[in-house]
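Box 3.1 A note on notation
Throughout this textbook, protein chains are presented in two layers. The first layer is the amino acid sequence; the second is a token string describing backbone geometry. Keep the layers aligned when reading.
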Amino acid sequence: EDNFLSCTNSFGSEHQLVIAEKLNGGKISNSFGEYTVDLSGVESVSSDCKIEASCSFGDLTLLVPKRFTVVHKSSKSFADFSVSDTPNDITEGEIHLHASVSFGDLTIEYI
């Protein structure tokens, strides 16, 4: 809504495709499940695009097109945070990810 994403998953397995002309930011929440948030439907990101993500007792995967860079800060408790692959050398924008992970896994996967 209004180019802000709001994605929530609890106790299940979900794949969410985000479609936006220009993503301004948003919130992602996952607990006790496997959640994939796919940003391949995002055409561009605003200059101050910030996404807050929380994952508790589950797995959260953020699929990010290689044309964007993810700059991340994370706090974790008994959790893993990983990045798979790398963005292009020249990118079209940055996504600032502020993540909190407890007893789970968060993966940024460049596609």
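The CA atoms of residues 62 and 108 lie 5 Å apart. The chain has a mean pLDDT of 93.
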